[in-house]
Design a protein that fits this description.
Blueprint: E1 4-15, E2 18-30, E3 35-39, H1 46-53, E4 61-66, E5 69-70, H2 76-86, E6 87-90, H3 102-110, H4 119-125, H5 141-154, E7 159-163, H6 171-187, E8 191-196, E9 207-212, E10 215-221
Parallel strand pairs: 3-8, 3-9, 6-7, 7-8
Antiparallel strand pairs: 1-2, 1-4, 4-5, 9-10
Length: 233
């Protein structure tokens, strides 16, 4: 079994008298420390997939395994622990606490983990060693996203989930952020999953899972991913 596995996962939503099938019998696997892109247009089901994997929503049927844990069998208390310790989240709009410094935002997350990494070390690894005392309002978009990544990495999660992490950034900064996420997967053995609609970054991933209308349409493995610097935005 892969490090992360979806087995016949379905997710339905009831809207009035209608049932919307957001995911239909999804099957795929991701290996440990793999840099994976989940690719699909708006409404394809990729955000639903991310929410299920992150323990923020529950599957209608099927099984989701992460490092041997059956996420679909966890109760609410166990799901809270799962989100706290095993999952790191990187969002498009950062979600930093404005009244805390860069260091305090990251260190607060580190305090939540069981085997957290050192906040200063991680901030240095993302190039923010000189911005630790600054507040979010004093940072550029790229610096805000790097702080968000450092916060997610610092608690040393099993998987790192990134929801359109470059959607609010220009192309140059976007490439830098994706290069950083790729580096994190290599340096810290993080299993990184990036949800995006941008097909141009697919050649740089270890694995590309394409989703359309709630179904997996293709799974592509790149034996020799290109460097992020060569991605044409």
């Amino acid at each position: 079994m892969s490090y992360l596995t979806f087995n016949n996962v379905k997710k339905n939503y009831e809207i009035g008298n209608d049932v919307v099938q957001a995911l239909q019998s999804i099957n795929f696997g991701i290996n440990e420390a793999e840099f994976t892109i989940v690719l699909g247009p708006s409404g394809s089901g990729k955000s639903t997939l991310l929410n299920l994997l992150g323990g923020m929503d529950t599957a209608t049927s099927g099984k989701i395994f992460v490092d041997g844990i059956d996420v679909t069998s966890l109760n609410q208390h166990q799901l809270t622990d799962y989100r706290r310790h095993d999952v790191g989240f990187v969002f498009q709009f950062y979600n930093l606490i404005p009244s805390l410094s860069v260091y305090e935002n990251v260190d607060m997350a580190a305090r939540l983990g069981r085997q957290s990494l050192d906040a200063k070390e991680i901030l240095s690894s993302v190039g923010l060693e000189n911005r630790m005392k600054h507040f979010p309002a004093e940072l550029s978009g790229g610096e805000l996203q790097r702080t968000s990544i450092a916060r997610a990495i610092c608690k040393n999660p099993k998987i790192l989930l990134c929801d359109e992490p470059t959607g609010a950034l220009d192309s140059e900064t976007g490439r830098m952020i994706l290069s950083l996420l790729h580096k994190m997967s290599r340096d810290y053995r993080q299993t990184v999953i990036v949800v995006t609609h941008n097909s141009l970054i697919a050649p740089a991933a270890d694995k590309v899972i394409s989703i359309k209308d709630g179904k997996i349409s293709d799974v592509q493995i790149n034996e020799q991913p290109i460097s992020m610097g060569k991605v044409v935005w």
